[in-house]
# Entry
Amino acid sequence: MLDNDSFNMMVDYWQEVIGNTTGRWCPRCGNDQNKRFGFTKTQAQRFRCKHCGVTFTKKALSQQATDRCAELLLWLESHREKKPETVLGLSATQIDRCFDALQQEAISHLVLQPVEERVATITYRMPFKGGWCWIMISCGLGSGRVLWLTPMCIPLCLPEAGRYSALTMADRDIPSDISGIDLAVFKENQFILRSQFDRLNIGECHSASKRYTFALPVLTAHTHFNLLYKLGHGQSLHSLEHEVFLRGACITQFSDAVKNRNTALYYFVGRPKGQEKLKRTQRVGWWKNLWREYCTEDGKKFAVSLLCGKELSSQEQVQDISLQVAQDFVDFIKPYQSVLGKMVLHRAVCLLSFLAVRFNEMRQGGK
# Structure
């Protein structure tokens, strides 16, 4: 069962962050009907919500912190094997403010992007100094850009029912020699062996900062799709990594579109590249979903299952809606994983958000 108190706290937190960072939503009620309402003494833009009447100001960081971001990025590209405090000669507090500025820039960039009708969503285990942090990542199938990412860590004191703790029984490692429908079958068997379908074990997570709580992955998934829905993304199609509770979270948060068959949901295993050819079909798992296995020109197999909604048109290829665009982002951040693994949690999350901006700029430049 989803802990609604924890879910509401997480949604309210991100609603407040996005509202105060961009002015797009009211940080209190989440309504997007805001109007400009003058300026503060420091000439910061104020807004007033037409729904609840609250006034709020877009959060502004000090100019000094913003200016020092250039130095931080220079460290990232040239001296990342050393601590930034050592290279830049700044205090830990000053470095933290630089990371805050990077994250604020990233949030503004991600939130204010054009709406994408089709979305690919995967999960990523981000290393940090203290373990692993499970993160949801969604990319637009049309543009290939990162639309939003939601970490399981959050600076709130969540109720006990919403907190993650490592389980004694972990999911079995996936054999390297299986693919396609066989991989889908293996993962379905993993789900059945869990004590609860929605309890995923990602290993130990410890943060030196007591301000952070690690939420259950299923709560993170529901929060992620809730935010995607509010941002207007994913109204016609979702391609999902094959994880059992991602389907439930997506269907719940896009319930009206799913009910009216305006949104299609697909599960994927494998990474299609090149011309595909259908090899076989098989019903798999508890829900007896129909999986289709394809083989590409290089002999690699992948499989896909339509969970709900309409099939692709005859002019579309399955690889056009695959998870490849999201996997491209994960490939992009691989060179930085050693840096992330040495960082405290807050800095790692800020850096990952900023790397999403870098990736999007690269995508835009490529087009």
Notes: The chain has a mean pLDDT of 88. The longest helix spans residues 345-366. The CA atoms of residues 279 and 294 lie 5 Å apart. The first strand starts at residue 34 and ends at 39.
